Amino acid sequence: MIGRLKSDLMRLAGGEWLVSFTTRDDPRQLIDSLKDCDVTIDLKKYSPKRSKDANACMWSICADIGKALRPPVSKEEVYRQAIRAVGVYTDVTVCIWDVDTIIGRWSTHGDGWVADVIDDAGIGKKRLHLYYGSSTYTRDEMRVLLDWLTDQAEQMQIPLRLSREEEERLLAQWGKASCKQTAPATSAAG
Are strands 41-44 and 89-95 parallel, antiparallel or unpaired? Predict the structure, then answer.
């Protein structure tokens, strides 16, 4: 849900806090299904999703690069290489016996959710980079990813289907088509 937090917090007699927000989405069905249950609430600053056109552009460049390589590689592998080269990641230290489980579970989020062992982090520990898929990227993060892919294609002398100006236009439209006229805050219950 997209909404806006209200500033009228209230502390109830039992010590709980009453937090409210407004939304243009109809919450009645969700509230009815979760009534009288404990729920998890995740609030974070709203960031519009990238446009479908920017996403299609990214995958098109990945496919073109993959076909031009010898031997050819999949567009997904090119995408993962790009994510590793310029992507957003979290650096974590884990016990060595948890490494395979964490990498396996992290990668189930999607093609760009890559996890790499970086180095030892002390006795019985490893340091990992957990890369986020581009579906979570901001406009600026997606711009870096598209620029890197475009540069790779140009270095390989692959003709691009879009000019830099067209790519910039796609990034400028990021989220506009799907944005509702609501405030920048999100809430999820589940």
Answer: unpaired
User: Is 188:23 a contact under the CB 8 Å cutoff?
Assistant: no
Query: What is the distance between the alpha carbons of residues 144 and 162, in angstroms, rounded to a whole number?
Result: 16
- Provide the residue type at 87 as one letter: G
Spatial contact of 141 and 93, defined as CB atoms under 8 Å apart: no
Question: At 60, is the secondary structure helix, strand, or coil?
Answer: helix
CB-CB contact of 73 with 66 (8 Å)? yes
- Give dist(CA 78, CA 156) in Å, integer: 13
Residue written as tokens 């519009």? Answer: 48
- Residues 83-109: pLDDT tens digits? 999 999 999 999 999 999 999 999 999
DSSP state of 38: -
Alpha helices in the chain (DSSP H): 28-34, 52-68, 75-86, 99-107, 139-155, 164-172
Token pair of 125, please? 């520990």
pTM: 0.62
Query: Which residues, 6+ apart, have CB-to-CB distance to 78 below 8 Å?
Result: 62, 63, 65, 66, 69, 149
The CA distance from 34 to 158, in Å, is: 52
Pairwise CA distance, residues 67 & 159, whole Å: 12
CA distance 83 to 133: 7
